[in-house]
Amino acid sequence: MDKLLIEGGHRLQGEAEMSGAKNAALPILCAALLTREPLTLTNVPQLNDIGTMLKLLAQMGVAVQRDGSVVTLDASGLDNPLAPYEMVKTMRASILVLGPLVARCGEAKVSLPGGCAIGARPVDQHIKGLTAMGADIAVEHGYVVARTSRLRGARLFTDMVTVTGTENLMMAAVLADGETVIENAAREPEVVDLANCLVAMGARISGAGSDVIRIQGVERLHGATHRIMPDRIETGTYLCAAAATGGEIRLTGTSAAYLDAVVDKLMDAGCDIRTEKSPSFEAIVLRAPQRLKAVSIRTAPYPAFPTDMQAQFMAINALAEGTSIIRETIFENRFMHAVELARLGADIRIDGNTAVVQGVAQLDGATVMATDLRASAGLIIAGLVARGETVIERIYHLDRGYERIEQKLTALGATVRRLS
Ligand code: EPZ
To answer: Could you give the CA distance from residue 212 to residue 210 in angstroms, rounded to a whole number?
Structure first.
């Protein structure tokens, strides 16, 4: 298993280009299932999770062409609406094929994703919504088995805000008979990016980005070309890495538009952040203080502080001046990076979904273990500022969501090496 060796103590300086958003690309790849015509996507990040999704679609009969960050999908030959356990267990987002398959084929057999390190991750809201739209759904032998003659529009209400639940139900609704209203919908920018792609394909959707999304079902969708939005979590991660090292960086190919909560907290911590905007271009520039001030955070659905940035902020708070409180309200077990940060010398006390972080003057390199994608990012940030060498094990988590991270960090002045 690959490891990452980081030599701490280097300020990050210079420029890095951000990639397309993993959590926009994954549902949008599944949207290709909704039409017999080709869907061409640009700015698709080159990540393991994307590769896994393309393999899953290909074994269903979707023709996949990929040239770097351009992907063309043709689902005219779709003949196997099955997502097998062997593939779904490696990537929970596979559940996003469920809605499109039921809408397009009238049937689907999708393995339950199962839990992961950060929580049980149930999909009951996905099932509840599809059932309300007229699908007959059974959960048997670890699979969601769905069938319907044709989905019908319905008024849906999710018990909690669910990102992929909203995306699955929106994709199911675009071909349903009549109007669907999704209340308590997720407002994440990736939901909006998916809606924009579906509208380009001929769907009739209004309200994406708000908590009420209306979809008028249509007979069929046509092909389209769509550019994936920038990855706001990758962007926030590099901003935190620069902030932790007292650095000064410029991130291109991205936007601060979807990161208000994160940018506000970084400014509270003492960073100077500004955006450069032109008709064809946007960049974010961050200049960090010598030492950050501790900032408390509470994760919640967009536009509040994103749970996917919680581990990164625990890392920068570990070294900041003062005490911070971190509340994780989305997932029940998303503090596993805390014990690993403690191995580097961080002073963190966990009490249920609350972490109290006492900033220390110095962290010391050690061997630590990544447990999930964003925890890995938090450990990298800590390794960049710890004295001496830090080795991060199980970095396959990292490769799922950060494109060419060693290259980008090295270009910014870090000393990072992959050990096989
Ligand atoms: C999406 O996961 C993201 N993944 C996650 O990013 C992100 O952390 C999460 O949203 C929250 O923002 C993708 O978009 C592919 P949820 P998702 O459904 O949709 C509970 C990363 O690092 N819930 O919004 O699976 C659930 O257990 C990943 O890129 C139910 O109980 O998250 C959680 O507590 C990690 N029943 C809460 O709701 C359901 O049917 C929010 O989950 C659905 C969700």
So the answer is: 6
Query: Among the atoms of ligand 1, which is closest to the Cα of residue 167?
Result: 19
The full DSSP string for 40-86 is EEES----HHHHHHHHHHHTTT-EEEEETTEEEEEGGG----EE-HH
Residue 371 beta carbon below 6 angstroms from any ligand 1 atom: no
- The confidence score (pLDDT) of residue 1 equals 82
- Tell me the pLDDT tens digit for each residue of 197-255: 999 999 999 999 999 999 999 999 999 999 999 999 999 999 999 999 999 999 999 98
What is the distance between the alpha carbons of residues 37 and 196, in angstroms, rounded to a whole number? 17
Task: Evaluate: CB of 231 within 6 angstroms of ligand 1.
Answer: no
Say yes or no: CB of residue 125 within 6 Å of ligand 1. yes
d(CA 216, CA 203): 8
Any atom of ligand 1 within 6 Å of the Cβ of 330: yes
Name residue 252's beta-bridge partners. Answer: 17, 283
Whether 347 has a pLDDT exceeding 90, the answer reads: yes
Is residue 240 among the annotated active site residues?
no
Cα(334) to ligand 1 centroid in Å equals 12
Interatomic CA distance for residues 163 and 96, integer angstroms: 10
H/E stretch holding 285 reads: strand 281-287
Q: Which tokens is 200 given?
A: 């380009």
Q: What is the pLDDT of residue 116?
A: 77
φ and ψ at residue 351, rounded to 5 degrees: -140, 95
What gap in Å lies between CA 399 and CA 332, rounded to an integer? 24
HEC per residue, 187-241: CCHHHHHHHHHHHHCCCEEECECECEEEEECCCCCCCEEEECCECHHHHHHHHHH
From the candidates 105, 116, 197, 271, give the one annotated as an active-site residue. 116
Between the CA of 24 and the centroid of ligand 1 the distance, in Å, is 13
Instruction: Tell how far the Cα of 161 is from the centroid of ligand 1, in angstroms.
Output: 9
Contact between 386 and 344 (Cβ < 8 Å): yes
Ligand 1 within 6 A of CB of 331: yes
- Centre of ligand 1 to C-alpha 336, Å, is 17
Does residue 98 line the site of ligand 1, with CB under 6 A? no
